[in-house]
Amino acid sequence: MSQLPAILARLDAGLDASLERLSSWLEIPSIGTDPAFNAQTRAAAEWLRADLEALGFKAELRETGGHPVVLAHRPKPGAPHALFYGHYDVQPVDPLNLWDTEPFKPVIREIEPGRKVISARGACDDKGQVMTFIEAVRATLAETGDLPIGLTILVEGEEESGSVNLPPYIKANAAELKADYALICDTGMWDRETPLITSTLRGMVYQEVTLTAADRDLHSGLFGGAAANPIHLLARILGELHDETGRITVPGFYDGVHEPTNAQKAEWADLNLTEKEFLGQIGLKHSVGEKGRMLIEQIQSRPTCDVNGIWGGYTGEGSKTVIPGQASAKVSFRLVGDQDPVKIAAAFHQFVRDRLPDDVTAEFISHSGSPALAVPPDSPVLQKARKALADEWGGRVVSIGSGGSIPVGGDFKRTLGIDTLFVGFGLDDDRVHSPNEKYDLSSFHKGQRSWARILQALGS
Amino acid sequence: MSQLPAILARLDAGLDASLERLSSWLEIPSIGTDPAFNAQTRAAAEWLRADLEALGFKAELRETGGHPVVLAHRPKPGAPHALFYGHYDVQPVDPLNLWDTEPFKPVIREIEPGRKVISARGACDDKGQVMTFIEAVRATLAETGDLPIGLTILVEGEEESGSVNLPPYIKANAAELKADYALICDTGMWDRETPLITSTLRGMVYQEVTLTAADRDLHSGLFGGAAANPIHLLARILGELHDETGRITVPGFYDGVHEPTNAQKAEWADLNLTEKEFLGQIGLKHSVGEKGRMLIEQIQSRPTCDVNGIWGGYTGEGSKTVIPGQASAKVSFRLVGDQDPVKIAAAFHQFVRDRLPDDVTAEFISHSGSPALAVPPDSPVLQKARKALADEWGGRVVSIGSGGSIPVGGDFKRTLGIDTLFVGFGLDDDRVHSPNEKYDLSSFHKGQRSWARILQALGS
């Protein structure tokens, strides 16, 4: 007899208590990228470890050379075994003056009539989403004394800084992390009523370039009109990365990009994503993506290039008539299909070098590189999850790619040989990576119920 | 009988003492742009006021709403009256780690065999150059008890921040500042052996632009490929300011630019300024100025555009996958001839706005605007100065425009109706506005002798 109704009822009754637990985790400022917060980041790891231990997991902190991972096991011989991944580190909070509430004092607010959210840094990314899954586990254990599947929980502390220690950790501990598939709750819903299974994620190439012209900063009166200005050169180079149709001009960039099937495109077209709803929410009107592509393609199945930061010369108050000796930019590419991150990084370096006069030099920092990831659409895990979500949300379940990158999915595939089920409950307006991050209470509540259903389905 | 030989002998004998006086003035960190140094900036004004008072001038500090001006009078009825201008504020010193010596502990160093310099912030710009003139006055007074001409000395404290209070001060005190011509010692020599009378100075338009796209910073995975990136837009706009021949593309920009006479061009060509010597000293090879123009034109008689600063997005350590909501740049133009700073600022605003989609906005800050300045080449003052310099330096005297801007010369012309004699002793490698600023002792010494000669000539 299905224990699901009782588990769901327990989740409904326990929502307030689950919010209190989430709030106490959110209060720990685990800003992993900032060494000033090292102690608090570790404390956030320990908070989760203790909670999992109380739930009956064998739960430990394992050192990595950076922030520790939380590793918890609850084996179930004879049953499928899942590996759940999340992260306990959160984004920095600046600029602080743009927050309506304090980023590490979670509050529950009604942002529209009948729509409550919890506001804090990490409310969605990733603590809220991790707890969405953990609460489903808690209620299942409390109600039934067991889980339908074996479970390993792996929660790291460096995702916001590129997870530098994770791939080697996975490699070194592959035997201990053995599983049939992975589960990640870090993606978004299609909209507030429609759940989403993420079928692909974009890869990432993150580069930094510094151009050096003169051997020092120059007076722009004495040298202006003759001396090369690296800001001009950098601006022109970055401006040439896209042509007037929105296509990226780096040679060879589109190698490995696959054209979707007509059926796939028809499915996407049915989703009817419009510029008005997608861009309107952020104060924009017109997509700058490749002409001739649907908006839905531009944001998940087409590769991109974005300059994430640029600096050079005098940037303080007032004026200074300087021609700087250097100018720099951080440039990242989102990859799809079989685009090769190593080749693209090299092509970008060449693209820059080809545009330099012989008295200006370029230096590069390669911050990260990971290929795109695809999940087989017909896997039994995905079918079961789709049915469970349809039962919870009562309507359609969208399966589509995400524009974002979750490189650990690629590590699971390459190193552990397993696919990942990506089901998350974030929303486009959650303001992850921005001030005033929030997570809808309906996402938290119905997400818990969704995972409880998925767990039951995976064990059957 | 000429008292000049005795005055020159006194200057030769008094060089060390003059260096000590200059050093004590240089020790006062009068960083006018930084409010933290307000007291020291005022102290530098008082130092000069007291020195001029001791020389027999009626010398006062006059309040302006910002830093005070030093105003000193020594009238001489029946004689021509000159107005000497300089500034006691100095540039900031960052980055401090690039200085070989402490910026406010002046030292005398031998940078090449037989070539000594004094190293400090302000050593050239402008305290060294001001004292070059004052020492000539001191020696003339000490030797003869009088000056050949009437003299008003006006030394302000806000030149490095755009002299915002000076034009209204000059207007309000025009009667008191009445003179036949102005004298400014703030320009450079042609080379270490060749003095220079500056015949034109470039004007200045200094603008700041901020583009705003989305109403907040965005996650580049979720929004990349669709959301407008203001860094890209700004880069493309700035990259379009020049065409491939080095010409500025802002419509109407070249209105008011005059073609020099063939005789003028021949004179300039005779100076034989090469890329190797001019750009080689700063580690560059190729001029980026307008094709078809001599290097000497590009740096003083052609107008320019330089981006002085650019910033946007994430610029810290490591990586952050953000599409910023804003990007900004400081853009300045050097003007020549009759180019109109008001029209050029407006044309720049339109240039930017013409290139924006309708969901991206631009805001501008107009930091400053001043037209170019020309000095009549046949004025008696200029002829006298030319002969005095030829006597001191023993060879040719170059008369050419400066690439830099000294807007107060324009205020003297428009408000007081007087022309300015620009004779200075700076050198291209003085590193004004950079770390390790210095002033050659030969510039200080022979500059003092030059001004003593010029003063005698002006009174005859």
Molecular structure report:
Two copies of one chain form a homodimer. The first copy, chain A, is of the alpha+beta class. Chain A is built from 14 helices and 18 strands. Chain A has helices at 4-13, 15-26, 38-54, 127-144, 166-172, 220-223, 230-239, 262-270, 275-280, 295-298, 341-353, 380-393, 408-416, 441-458, and strands spanning 58-62, 69-74, 81-87, 107-112, 115-119, 150-156, 181-184, 196-201, 203-212, 218-219, 304-313, 322-323, 326-335, 361-370, 373-374, 398-402, 420-423, 438-440. In chain A, the strands form four sheets. In chain A, strands 1, 2, 3, 6, 7, 8, 15, 16 and 17 form a nine-stranded mixed β-sheet that branches. A four-stranded antiparallel β-sheet of chain A has the order 11-13-9-14, covered by helices on one side. A three-stranded antiparallel β-sheet of chain A has the order 4-5-18. In chain A, a hairpin with a 2-residue loop joins strand 4 and strand 5 (115-119). Chains A and B meet through strand 9, strand 10, helix 6, helix 7 and helix 9 of A and strand 9, strand 10, helix 6, helix 7 and helix 9 of B. Chains A, B: GO terms for molecular function: metal ion binding; peptidase activity.
Continuous helix count of chain A: 14
Global Rg of chain A = 24 Å
Helix content of chain A: 25-40%
> Can you tell me the residue ranges of chain A where pLDDT is under 50 for at least 5 consecutive residues?
none
Domain Peptidase M20 dimerisation (chains A, B): 208-359
GO molecular function (chains A, B): metal ion binding; peptidase activity
Pfam families (chains A, B): M20_dimer (PF07687), Peptidase_M20 (PF01546)
Protein name (chains A, B): Dipeptidase
